[in-house]
């Protein structure tokens, strides 16, 4: 093995034996220089053979043979198709123009002509040289002939590249480029390389000017043309080609150096903000449709030919990319190793004065520039491919998860068990979380990359059972090729479907893409480590092996510490999960928290969770710091032991060339150590996330039509064409067998059973009635195929013909975050006449007239701008507008008052749009709907059909049902058209209808208020002391570390100045060890200070944010999506905890270190301050250009990500509706469109990073090369100082990119897009008055429920219209007051005004005290309101009734009894609801009626003196409502005042008083018996219209309960 001390031997390694001798020294006839001409002739011969072979394989005969052998892989496209595409459809173009276009355009044509001319010129010169050759040697003639043949072959290929068919042209260009490049390389080697040596001369110098002409022509043809010629655009879909983007036609040079990104960067520089439509369109090979077509055969369980791990599926997609990545890693490693070699040779040159040097020093100086540049090109191409793979993988897996979600069975979910909690992410991902779920990027104090680090911070330095006719007309979806189908789950794996899917499409996809760099761990680390050890062994002999043994011995230490850190991280994640769950639950019910006055208790509850989280965070950060310090010490100890062995034991001289070049190699070893420690957990996380995705794909329970298990019974089904019905069947919510657990696992075990036969009437309205929880909705779900079908016999069937379409309106109205019109159209073409009819018949005209933008009003997230009745009618309108022949309507009348419900029945159900269609209507409003019902199904409490048939038959068979209908049967007949003008008011058109307040786009760089927020949090009470300590300590560390490097050079210099025996090794070793100990100690102390500061900032910012949100107004909450609020409290806080603290500390550390390094260079080389400053300014300018463009693109990327997640979440929430309408394809296309929008922004985002990296690395290499030139040729510099300066320069140049990227990431994480500015703005939102000492009421208050209102006005905004006008009334303690009125009359506004939730004027006295003088929390905690939409928390029923553990079980059970729950169930019922029953998030495992009962019970528990019911029993059947009202009359204390807002007159007619509101004013207020005496009174009008008029009149004669 050659020694690096021997330059001649080293030259042999580089150039070979033939490269160092002059031609004159060779024997005649054996001129090996001229023998190198054999290479281009040989390459041309091989090329010709391969070209013929390729043409043969592409011949028509071979194609025909392949078609017969592999018919499934037949490719129809041929060259004629290519010509047709290239020519286009414009027949008016000239033949020449079409020909030029077929080549790729005029530029490509010009370059090919140029190459053709150069090839012919080269052939002519070669022939001329052959004719002029006077060398009698036969070999010389043969070589010249071979060269002529090579250029003749090049001319032939050049002609083919212009005149052949497209495929042939492409082949010819490739072969031509290779042949010419080899010829160019040979000429350069023979005639240019000798100028870089001391011992050689150009071989072909005797050719004179002809030689240089050949070199110029070859350089143009072989280098310039391939590098500069644009590439021809080849569309993926040649039938529908897209407009090519710059990336697709950029030349190789532009693609390599990313010049094609210049237009984006300049456009961003010239404007304040670059919009998404200003970015380049999406390339056709990156469109989601193409990616789906490419990936599904490998990933989709229903298309993959065999079941295998998703990793191998991804490898099957990206195998070509990974081959390229492999070679890019090799090039990078080899290029990086060139830097220490160059430093060694330069310093060796200085030490020896150039003695025995073969290569001139300027070669090594140039190499210091070319080495990092070449490494950067290879590395950035590696990252270019991996980031493109990342974006494509995101699109593929997101689409795959979305498509698979359309197949799954929707089951209500309960909260996660403690065991599951640890498996979830700490980041609550929500549809609004746009920037959100990007894994926090940054550098940990450990030095290991965090998630996403390699993207953002890596520098170049780095059955079957048929469902009968329910599936008629649809083919069975089965995997192709007999592939294995997804298995049915064996147990309830998921506890929250929507939450899990959100995590899969955000966190898990992010982790999967982060793990794409496994080649770094399995290729780069071992290869680079091996080369480094080889290099060290070459210059330090076997002492390098001692260092290697030391490193191997110490390597388990950081690994062991990292394993402990991972355990602590798991505990920290568990605590974070607990806080996130609490925060998410709180923010989902934040309106309830405010209405109940729970702000401060809730804040304390969250703070407890936060403190526990911060405790684990502190432990994790301290351990990470320890890991970093150990990882820092180990390479230095390895280097130290190596030097000690080399100098003390081996007694060798420590020269500067050895010291500084070996330091560079030791840095590479340290880099690999950090890389290994960093990548192992990333790989593990990626594997776990891949398994989670695979589990969802293969183990999630699917609808019966997609799932087949061996347990299913195969039976023959009766064909029932056109029949809607069920025979002899059972249905459950799980395929685990009959009687399995209901959705969510906490509800009673429910099975829907149809023992005989149920055939619904076609072309008529069918009613489904029954008590709450009897299975009415389940019947619809069974028909739709949403429940698991269990046939009970050979004649069993379930049938719902879908040929003519099915429409569905869910009980919980599902709307998308689109305009009202878009929600109604639901993808159908706009038919103005039909649309207007729907609006009229669904009583929406008046509602639209209330909105400024009419039907262009955005409904907001989950329809937050709409009332429950409006959402129900829009959902109904969607079904009516559709062309579906069968409509399934689930309790659409529940949320409507009697007049609106009557309108719907009269205008819609009796209208022309419903006539002839089959309607299956679930309803509690039997009296309203019975007049249109031709067939009735009555459900029993056991999930069976109690009775069915015509209405008259049901009335005769069911006495209770008959009595109910009899009481109300006159309603439709007697009621007159009421307020038709109001309900049919014309719609408005106006503003754009945007409701959701868009997040302000912060333009420019990070705002000081946001940074000030964090800086003050870090410093706490003594900010000056904190910053002085931290900055001072870092500065001392950087100075000492730089001194360490200089001291090694000084140590080596002693061997030059003194006899080696006189050098006191122990002395220098002690000083170096002391410096090392000082650096580690001070650095550790500095970061201990910073860790405590970051924890202090995290605690304060979180506390302030939660307090601010809980203290805001309902008005702000109405216009801010809950998901956005949750994102602030979860993702953004997580960013504050991790990314921002890490990035800020690293930015400060790197800034100080770069300053120290630059100053140390200037101290030793003062004159270099000018070129050094110029390069630094150029680097900063590139950074500014980059950051301006990156902020714009990152903003658009984040904004484009949110709609993807929002659409995904909305689709999951409405899966049943989507499948009922058969709208899967529509939603799939919309998903593709949104993913394309995201990809359009993501592609330039990552390409911008590559643009910057190439330039900063080139500038860094230039910086080091210029410094080396100055030191070598400037004279006077010693080898040790030169080595120190070069080491500092190389390190400084490598840090330029890191510094710019860390600053950029700090801005991205500190902007509105990230966290700090968004959090800062949430601290400045509008707030309600804060509590004061004067606002505390007396301890006895309230002693009664007296309520007095004087001249009350109310508005929803300070400058908005008054919704209540001069309201005056008085209610004595214990009175029951009913509140009625039309929609929009101010009923709900009055309840909010009493709680001071909106802006009020006037006086409200509660138990004698004016409410405006009482603190809001005291007021609201003593008034209880039950809103129309009940809000429940996940957890047990006990936790829902008593979240703060204030009451015993007896009180809770009493409240449940009073609320009427026990009237719906018997205690001995299996699975009855108890205090320990689990409630799913939002109460999704309960019926709406059950939720309202539980909300009522929670209100009763509070024992307030004033209880307000706002339509609290609207979704409960009449019988249960009657039970509840009876309970309220007897169970509540006699001093409890009850205000009841209701549209059911039965609910409030026996009240002590009734208040009638109209347009915000009280028009009637008195005892109901008195009000009924007014012939023209509104209440009397309502009663007269009602079908139960006699009952209502009799109720007013009942006994009221005075206080």
TrEMBL record:
Residue intervals of the ABC transporter domain: 726-967, 1347-1584
Source organism: Obba rivulosa
Biased composition range(s): Basic and acidic residues: 413-422, 482-494
Membrane topology (UniProt): Multi-pass membrane protein
CDD domains to which the protein is assigned, alphabetical: ABC_6TM_VMR1_D1_like (cd18596), ABC_6TM_VMR1_D2_like (cd18604), ABCC_MRP_domain1 (cd03250), ABCC_MRP_domain2 (cd03244)
Annotated compartments: Membrane
Parts of the chain that traverse the membrane: 37-57, 103-128, 140-164, 171-190, 210-228, 362-384, 518-537, 543-565, 622-649, 1024-1051, 1071-1093, 1152-1181, 1204-1222, 1258-1276, 1282-1303
Region (Disordered): 413-494
Biased composition (Low complexity): 423-435
GO cellular component assignments: membrane
Domain ABC transmembrane type-1 intervals: 323-685, 1031-1308
Record-given protein name: P-loop containing nucleoside triphosphate hydrolase protein
């Amino acid at each position: 093995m050659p020694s690096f001390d021997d330059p001649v031997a080293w030259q042999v390694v580089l150039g070979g034996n033939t490269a160092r001798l002059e031609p004159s020294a060779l024997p005649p006839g054996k001129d090996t220089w001229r023998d190198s001409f054999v290479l281009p002739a040989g390459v041309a011969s091989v090329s010709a053979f391969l070209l013929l072979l390729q043409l043969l394989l592409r011949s028509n005969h071979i194609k025909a043979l392949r078609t017969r052998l592999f018919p499934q892989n037949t490719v129809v496209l041929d060259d004629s198709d290519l010509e047709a595409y290239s020519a286009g459809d414009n027949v008016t173009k000239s033949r020449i123009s079409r020909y030029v276009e077929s080549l790729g355009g005029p530029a490509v044509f010009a370059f090919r002509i140029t190459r053709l001319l150069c090839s012919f010129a080269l052939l002519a010169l070669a022939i001329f040289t052959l004719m002029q050759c006077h060398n009698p040697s036969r070999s010389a003639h043969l070589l010249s002939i071979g060269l002529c043949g090579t250029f003749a072959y090049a001319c032939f290929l050049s002609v083919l590249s212009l005149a052949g068919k497209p495929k042939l042209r492409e082949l010819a260009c490739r072969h031509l480029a290779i042949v010419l490049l080899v010829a160019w390389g040979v000429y350069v080697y023979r005639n240019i390389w000798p100028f870089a040596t001391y011992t050689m001369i150009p071989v072909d110098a005797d050719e004179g000017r002809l030689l240089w002409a050949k070199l110029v022509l070859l350089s143009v043809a072989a280098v310039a043309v391939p590098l500069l010629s644009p590439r021809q655009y080849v569309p993926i879909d040649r039938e529908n080609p897209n407009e090519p983007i710059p990336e697709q036609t950029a030349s190789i040079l532009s693609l390599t150096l990313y010049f094609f990104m210049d237009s984006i960067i300049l456009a961003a520089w010239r404007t304040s903000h670059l919009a998404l439509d200003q970015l380049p369109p999406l390339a056709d090979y990156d469109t989601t449709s193409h990616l789906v077509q490419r990936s599904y055969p490998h990933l989709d369980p229903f298309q993959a030919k065999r079941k295998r791990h998703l990793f191998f599926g991804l490898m099957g997609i990206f195998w070509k990319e990974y081959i390229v990545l492999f070679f890019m890693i090799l090039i990078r490693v080899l290029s990086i190793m060139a830097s220490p070699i160059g430093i060694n040779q330069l310093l060796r040159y200085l030490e020896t004065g150039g003695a025995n040097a073969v290569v001139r020093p300027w070669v090594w100086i140039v190499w210091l520039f070319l080495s990092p540049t070449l490494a950067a090109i290879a590395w950035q191409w590696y990252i270019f491919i991996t980031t493109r793979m990342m974006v494509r993988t995101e699109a593929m897996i997101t689409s795959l998860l979305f498509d698979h979600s359309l197949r799954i069975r929707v089951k209500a979910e309960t909260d996660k068990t403690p065991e599951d909690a640890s498996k979830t992410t700490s980041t609550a991902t929500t549809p609004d979380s746009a920037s959100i779920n990007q894994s926090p990027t940054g550098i940990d104090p450990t030095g290991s990359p965090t998630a996403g680090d390699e993207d953002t911070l890596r520098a170049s330095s780095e059955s079957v059972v048929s469902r009968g006719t329910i599936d008629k007309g649809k083919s069975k979806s089965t995997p192709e090729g007999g592939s294995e189908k997804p298995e049915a789950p064996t147990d309830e794996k998921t506890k929250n479907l929507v939450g899990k899917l959100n995590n899969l499409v955000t966190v898990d996809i992010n982790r999967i893409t982060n793990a794409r760099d496994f080649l770094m761990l399995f290729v780069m680390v071992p290869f680079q480590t091996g080369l480094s050890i080889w290099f060290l062994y070459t210059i330090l002999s076997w002492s390098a092996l001692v260092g290697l043994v030391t490193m191997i011995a110490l390597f388990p230490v950081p690994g062991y510490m990292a394993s402990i850190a991972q355990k602590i991280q798991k505990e920290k994640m568990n605590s974070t999960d607990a806080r996130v769950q609490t925060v998410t639950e709180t923010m989902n019910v934040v309106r309830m928290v405010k209405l109940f006055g729970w702000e401060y208790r809730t804040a304390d509850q969250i703070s407890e969770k936060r403190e526990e989280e911060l405790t684990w965070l502190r432990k994790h950060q301290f351990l990470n710091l320890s890991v970093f310090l150990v990882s820092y010490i180990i390479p230095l100890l390895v280097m130290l032991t190596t030097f000690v062995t080399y100098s003390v034991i081996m007694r060798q001289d420590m020269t500067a060339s050895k010291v500084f070049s070996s330091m560079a190699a030791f840095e590479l070893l340290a880099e690999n150590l950090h890389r290994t420690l960093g990548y192992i957990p990333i790989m593990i996380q990626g594997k776990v996330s891949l398994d989670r995705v695979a589990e969802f794909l293969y183990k999630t329970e699917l609808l019966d039509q997609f799932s087949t298990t061996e347990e299913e019974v195969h039976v023959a089904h009766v064909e029932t064409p056109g029949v809607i019905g069920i025979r002899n069947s059972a249905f459950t919510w799980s395929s685990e067998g009959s009687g399995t657990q209901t959705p969510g696992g906490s509800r009673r075990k429910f099975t829907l059973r149809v023992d005989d036969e149920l055939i619904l009437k076609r072309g008529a309205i069918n009613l489904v009635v029954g008590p709450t929880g009897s299975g009415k909705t389940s019947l619809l779900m069974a028909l739709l195929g949403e429940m698991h079908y269990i046939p009970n016999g050979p004649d069993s069937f379930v049938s719902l013909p879908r040929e003519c379409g099915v429409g569905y309106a869910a009980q919980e109205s599902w709307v998308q975050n689109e305009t009202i019109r878009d929600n109604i159209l639901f993808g159908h073409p706009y038919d103005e006449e039909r649309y207007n009819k729907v609006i009229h018949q669904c009583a929406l005209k008046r509602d639209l007239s209330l909105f400024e933008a009419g039907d262009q009003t955005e409904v907001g997230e989950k329809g937050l701008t709409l009332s429950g009745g409006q959402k129900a009618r829009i959902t109904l309108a969607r079904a009516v507008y559709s062309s579906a022949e069968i409509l399934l309507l689930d309790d659409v009348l529940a949320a409507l008052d009697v007049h609106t419900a009557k309108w719907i029945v009269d205008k819609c159900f009796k209208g022309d749009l419903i006539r002839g269609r089959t309607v299956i209507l679930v309803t509690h409003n039997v009296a309203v709907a019975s007049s249109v019902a031709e067939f009735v199904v009555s459900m029993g409490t056991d999930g069976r059909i109690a009775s069915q048939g015509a209405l008259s038959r049901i009335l005769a068979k069911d006495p209770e049902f008959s009595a109910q209908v009899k009481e109300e049967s006159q309603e439709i007949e007697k009621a007159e058209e009421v307020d038709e003008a109001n309900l049919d008011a014309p719609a408005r058109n106006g503003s754009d209808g945007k409701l959701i307040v868009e997040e302000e786009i912060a333009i420019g760089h990070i705002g000081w208020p946001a940074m000030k927020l964090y800086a003050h949090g870090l410093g706490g009470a003594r900010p000056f002391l904190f910053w002085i300590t931290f900055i001072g300590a870092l500065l001392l560390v950087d100075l000492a570390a730089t001194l360490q490097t200089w001291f090694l050079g000084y140590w080596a210099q002693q061997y030059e100045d003194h006899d080696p025996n006189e050098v006191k090794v122990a002395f220098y070793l002690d000083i170096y060890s002391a410096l090392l100990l000082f650096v580690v100690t001070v650095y550790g102390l500095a970061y201990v200070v910073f860790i405590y500061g970051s924890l202090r900032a995290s605690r304060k910012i979180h506390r302030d944010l939660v307090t601010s949100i809980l203290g805001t107004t309902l008005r702000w909450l109405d216009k801010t999506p809950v998901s956005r609020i949750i994102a602030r409290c979860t993702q953004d806080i997580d960013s504050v905890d991790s990314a921002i603290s890490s990035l800020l500390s690293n930015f400060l550390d790197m800034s100080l270190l770069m300053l120290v390094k630059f100053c140390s260079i200037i101290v030793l080389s003062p004159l270099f301050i000018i070129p050094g400053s110029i390069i630094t300014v150029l680097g900063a300018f590139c950074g500014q250009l980059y950051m301006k463009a990156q902020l714009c693109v990152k903003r658009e990327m984040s904004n484009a990500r949110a709609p993807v997640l929002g659409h995904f979440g909305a689709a999951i929430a409405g899966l049943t509706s989507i499948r009922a309408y058969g709208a899967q394809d529509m939603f799939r296309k919309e998903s593709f469109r949104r993913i394309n929008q995201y990809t359009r922004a993501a592609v330039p985002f990552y390409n911008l990073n590559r643009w910057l990296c190439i330039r900063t690395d080139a500038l860094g290499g230039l910086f080091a090369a210029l410094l080396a030139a100055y030191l070598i040729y400037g004279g006077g510099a010693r080898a040790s100082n030169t080595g120190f300066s070069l080491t500092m320069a190389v390190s400084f140049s490598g840090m330029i990119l890191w510094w710019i990227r860390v600053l950029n990431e700090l801005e991205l994480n500190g902007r509105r897009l990230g966290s700090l500015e968004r959090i800062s703005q949430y601290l400045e939102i509008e707030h309600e008055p804060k509590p004061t000492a004067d606002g505390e009421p007396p301890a006895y208050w309230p002693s009664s429920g007296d309520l007095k209102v004087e001249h009350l006005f109310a508005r929803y905004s300070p400058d908005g219209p008054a919704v209540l006008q001069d309201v005056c009334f008085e209610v004595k303690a214990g009175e029951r007051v009913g509140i009625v009125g039309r929609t929009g009359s101010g009923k709900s506004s009055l309840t909010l005004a009493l709680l001071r939730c909106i802006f009020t004027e006037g006086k409200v006295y509660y138990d004698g005290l004016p409410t405006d003088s009482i603190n809001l929390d005291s007021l609201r905690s003593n008034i209880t309101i039950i809103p129309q939409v009940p809000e429940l928390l996940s957890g047990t029923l006990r936790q829902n009734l008593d979240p703060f553990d204030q009451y015993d079980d007896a009180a809770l059970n009493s409240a449940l009894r009073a609320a009427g729950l026990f009237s719906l169930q018997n205690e001995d019922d299996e699975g009855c609801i108890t205090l320990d029953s689990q409630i799913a998030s939002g109460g999704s495992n309960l019926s709406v009626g059950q939720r309202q009962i539980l909300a009522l019970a929670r209100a009763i528990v509070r024992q307030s003196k004033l209880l307000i019911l706002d339509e609290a029993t609207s979704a409960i059947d009449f019988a249960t409502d009657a039970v509840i009202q009876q309970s309220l009359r007897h169970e509540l204390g006699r001093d409890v005042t009850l205000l009841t807002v209701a549209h059911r007159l039965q609910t409030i007619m026996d009240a002590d008083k009734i208040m009638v509101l109209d347009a915000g004013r009280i028009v009637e207020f008195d005892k109901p018996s008195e009000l009924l005496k007014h012939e023209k009174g509104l209440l009397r009008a309502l009663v007269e219209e009602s079908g139960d008029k006699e009952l209502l009149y009799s109720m007013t004669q009942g006994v009221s309960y005075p206080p």
